[in-house]
Design a protein that fits this description.
363 residues, Methylamine Dehydrogenase, Chain H, four-stranded antiparallel sheet, globular
């Protein structure tokens, strides 16, 4: 079955396509050349998947482009699709996350931005409105900026309850809504803020969350990669506990849940926040099949020489196949693909610009 990869980089969006396992990947020339693409989304709720790209032009500013022909052509509205209302005094710097809503709301798409805000679209991701309930939250003036900026990098709509949505910001933590985004509550119980003094390590908010993923079989179960810490929640984010025990490090950026098998998750650990190299300079993905009780390395087919690039929070993903394909891109422009859930890997693309995000869809 054909797989389409969307690879967002610091210098444009690349599309890679493969029709059969074992075929070489056909990689396009850059679309939106010399434009940083920090977020891509694939909306599979329509007959032909809709592709969405958060583009970040230094000349024209940030925007979201939409394609309904698998990247053959792209369109944008005549006015900015995401814009802060004048009374906020804020200006959009970047789109960090694009998340189609649940099947019950086929035209809803969520977006997370920098500065820290969440937007909601009701026309399939063409235009968006600011989610005021989160922007006006009393915690917002006290959110700090992470190393990469103050950004809502994760938005997770609940798959069966349109009223429930979870969002995460670096640096601010996890927030939950149970009323469609009208009101929000901090959801960080059990997550450490390791950069704070010991007595303040578990604040109500202010954690530097890197990414959150939802379990495919149990939507109440979530997995979280923190700035030092890997966690699981079994109650939709109300409480969290560590699952980093058998990982070689609890620092990293991406965390990816299996698209249809519960308890299976992938992670790419780095040594530490001050040593952002793969542990022991080895290129290894780690997988759990028991919801984080144990983790095992997956490296067959990956480089065996000392390996130094990191993998960013959205530069790792899985497709919807069975077995699931797993993909990750590096800051030195390589993309690796596995057609067997990480058991073996092969190089899909090389010599690309800095890879910022990767998404995959089976066609």
């Amino acid at each position: 079955m054909t797989v389409l990869l969307l690879i967002g980089t610091a210098k444009g969006l690349f599309l890679a396509r493969r029709d059969r396992v074992g075929d070489a990947w056909d990689v396009s020339v850059p679309q939106f050349p010399m434009t940083a693409v920090y977020a891509v989304g694939v909306d599979t709720r329509r007959p032909t998947p809709r592709l969405l790209a958060g583009i970040d032009s230094s000349h024209f500013g940030p925007s979201v482009a939409v394609s309904d022909d698998l990247g053959g052509c792209w369109r944008e509205p005549d006015h900015a699709p995401l814009a802060f209302p004048a009374d906020t005094g804020a200006a959009l710097r970047r789109v960090w996350a694009i998340a189609p809503g649940p099947a019950a709301e086929p035209d809803v798409v969520w977006a997370g931005t920098e500065p820290g805000a969440v937007f909601r679209s009701i026309n399939g991701g063409v235009t968006y409105d600011l989610v005021r309930g989160l922007w006006d939250h009393p915690h917002r003036p006290r959110w700090d900026a992470g190393f990469g900026g103050q950004a809502f990098h994760t938005v997770l709509p609940h798959p069966t309850d349109p009223q429930r949505v979870l969002a995460a910001i670096s640096t601010g933590g996890v927030y939950r809504s149970e009323d469609g985004g009208d009101s929000w509550h901090a959801a960080n119980t059990g997550i450490q803020a390791v950069f704070l003094p010991e007595p303040q390590r578990f604040p109500e908010f202010g954690q530097c969350v890197h990414k959150v993923a939802r379990d495919a079989e149990d939507p109440e179960r979530l997995y979280l990669q923190n700035h030092h810490g890997v966690y699981r929640s079994d109650d939709d984010g109300r409480t969290w506990h560590s699952i980093a025990g058998s990982l070689p490090s609890d620092f990293g950026f991406p965390i990816v849940a299996h698209p249809h098998r519960g308890g299976t998750v992938w992670n790419f650990p780095l040594t530490a926040d001050a040593q952002r190299f793969p542990v022991d300079f080895r290129c290894r993905v780690f997988r759990t099949t028991d919801a984080g009780a144990t983790w095992s390395p997956q490296a067959y087919g990956l480089p065996t020489a000392p390996f130094y690039p990191s993998v960013l929070r959205d530069a790792m993903c899985a497709d919807g196949g069975d077995p699931a394909g797993v993909y990750f891109g590096t800051r030195t422009g390589e993309v690796y693909a596995s057609a067997d859930e990480g058991d073996s890997w092969a190089l899909a693309a090389a010599h690309l610009p800095d890879v910022l995000c990767v998404r995959a869809v089976r066609l």
